[in-house]
Amino acid sequence: MKRVQRLLNKLNGTGAHNSLAVRLWSIIVTIFVLLALTFLIAIVAVTLNARKEYSARDAETLINGLTATINGNIENYKDISRLVMINEDVMKYMRADTVDAGLKNDAIYGIMDILLACDSVDSVFLFRNDGEYMSTGKGLYNIDTETMELNLWKDEIYDKRGGAIVRMNGNYAVFRQNGDQIITIARAVYDIYTQKRTGILLMNISTLMLRTAIGDVENAYVCVVSEKGTFLAGDRELAECYTREYSSDHIVHRKNGDGKHHMVSGYRPEGLPIIIMCRVTPTRSNVPIVILLVLLLLAAAFVMSVIMIASFIARDINKPILQLTEAMEDTKRSGWLKKIDVKMPDNEIGQLADSYNSMNDYLQVVLNRLIDKEKMVQRVEMRVLQEQIKPHFLYNSLGTISYMACEAGADKVYSALETLGSFYRNFLSKGDREIPLKREIQIIRDYLSIQKLRYGENINDEYDIDESVLEIVIPKLILQPLVENSIYHGIRVKGEPGLIKISAKREGSSLVVRVYDTGVGMSEEQIKNILEGENGEENEEEEALSGFGLKGTIRRIRYYCKDDDAIRIISEEGEYTEIILKLNIKNEE
Fold first, then answer.
1. Does the structure show a pLDDT above 50 at 123?
2. Could you tell me where in the chain the CATH 3.30.565.10 domains are found?
3. Whole-angstrom distance, CA of residue 276 vs CA of residue 272
4. C-alpha atoms less than 13 angstroms from C-alpha of 422 in its C-beta half-sphere
5. What global pTM score does this model have?
6. What is the CATH number of domain 432-584?
């Protein structure tokens, strides 16, 4: 961590708050924190899950044991009820046509003899077919005769044909007046001699049997409730967790919503009207030590992996990148492009440094070319300026001579001198490098007017200029050299009258100007030579400095538009030549 702090202090000193190193160590610290949290969460989750599984298993063992005990007790009481049913005194009472006190007392004593060793039997009821009944046991009872008269109540007992059914509170027809719950074993009574049904026997068992069965269960809370959730025995507080989910033929485990997230298990034994519930308290032996050791080993492996990855990134990636960045910053502070001289590893970062040096070399070449071109353009513009300065005296002289020609009545001479003066006036253009298209067209008109004085009707000119483009600004004197080339290398060489046509219109964001002549035309090789400059840069520069040649004009147009496709030439030998300029519209002032 000290190393990290030193690195952060160094980066903060250089203002690299968002550097790769800061983010790298931030990610590493974040990974450590997430790993620690994940490990703790995994330990808690595994521990809780293991405790849940252990608790569920212990609960199932406990519930199954209690179920076996209770079922065993119930089976014993069923056997006792069978003994009561076949007792001679009981049979006499049940088969007698009329009942007197003697028969009833004999039946009671006979039942008491059988129940002497059965502490949990609360009472026994015998109901004859004629409605007479007798009971034995302690306490007072309420009998719901209306329920007992229901066919459903009787049929459920009769359907067993002497077999026993176990229900709560006499199948909800016999109740203790003090509210104590009882478990009833009900049978239909048959005469063993005649096999006639003589009545119904109800043996009521107190909850003492359940309390005895529960006993002292270690590390667990156990309770037994009725099928309706009424508390019978065990932990009364646990009985409050009862839900209908526990009335299932398999053991159900669910969390208790008491805020402690205890797991309560419950189950209804088959054939019994009770539900056994328990909550097992987990012990230290429930914690899976082996699993925790495995998690610790995995955590250690992850930590070592993160340390190794962080060390690799810091040594082989972050450090070279910082060195490369510092070298680039030194180059930036020097104010000029230069190669970086830092030892880089032989990998992608080293390739990045080599690419940077190669880019510097290429930029040096490009800058040198641009500087050379700018110097040449400046020399050309200086020569143009010199050429513009020279005609000032000529322009002033032409004004004086034209005035003298007008005084002498030489109208043609005066007109020629006026045209020549207009040509030089627009030609000079107050030294402007860019002029509106309409002034460039006027220069062409004046130039062709002067040429017509020499060639007469051999030169004809036409103009198709869209009025919306007249104010668009273009470089000065880019059309006059093209027209001059049409005369001297096209029409004059052909030796017959020719036409020069100038057209201009807007196409999107571009101004398209066409210079068409009916001269001798050009071959594909000539066009290629002119556009690609096969004569070499030195000859082109000499041509540009010596006048306004075609190649010099092409160079100016391409430089102005920053596009080699700004000029195209279409020609057919012996027929025509058309030069098409596509200029960017910069302003229309």
1. yes
2. 432-584
3. 10
4. 18
5. 0.48
6. 3.30.565.10
